[in-house]
Amino acid sequence: HSTATAETLCTLRLDLDWSPVDDLLDRASDEKGRVAFIVDPSGRLIAASRTLRANSALTQALPGWYDDAGRVRQRSGAPLVDASVIAGAARARDGARLHGLDWTVVVAQPVAEALAPVHRMAAIFLLLVAAIALLTATTALWISHAIASPVASLTKLARAYMQTRVLESPPSRG
């Protein structure tokens, strides 16, 4: 039978080099407004991409961002960015096994930037439709003229014959 006492034997201090995490988040972000960050279940920002680190965003709590794990949705970007964003979030894989590391990684991009390629494709599509319509109309006019020209020449010959009763030689072309 032993008696245990609550006596501190030592203090363990862990210094974590966040630079690989910061580098990864920086690669996921860009200068056009896309940001990446890690948040814990209480909404506390754990790490963030360069843009957010420069704006001291690490001091702000972000309730609600943690709950977005596994989803992509449009939401307000406040307080991180001044625009509506499309945000995708995923939980860290080892969070269930490592107590206290139940973190969510979020990548958020302003809606205007996220939809810019779609808008560009829509404009290109409309230009292609207009070009095809113009080509179709031009081709239709050319073909209709090619078909109608001989008929018009024969009609002109028939009218001239009906008026003068003199048969002229029929037109050789159109």
Question: What attributes characterize this protein structure?
Answer:
174 residues, alpha+beta, 3 helices
Report the C-alpha radius of gyration, rounded: 36 Å
First and last CA, distance: 120 Å
What kind of oligomer do you see?
single chain
* Biggest sheet details: 5 strands, antiparallel
Global mean pLDDT: 82
Order of helices and strands: HEEHEEEH
Would you kindly provide a written description of the structure presented here, covering whatever features stand out?
The protein has 174 residues and is of the alpha+beta class. The protein has 3 helices and 5 strands. The protein has helices spanning 19-28, 50-54, 111-164; strands at residues 35-39, 45-48, 72-76, 84-91, 104-110. The protein has a 5-stranded antiparallel beta sheet with strand order 2-1-5-4-3. Strand 3 (72-76) and strand 4 (84-91) form a beta hairpin. The longest helix has 54 residues, at 111-164. It is rod-shaped, with a radius of gyration of 36 Å.
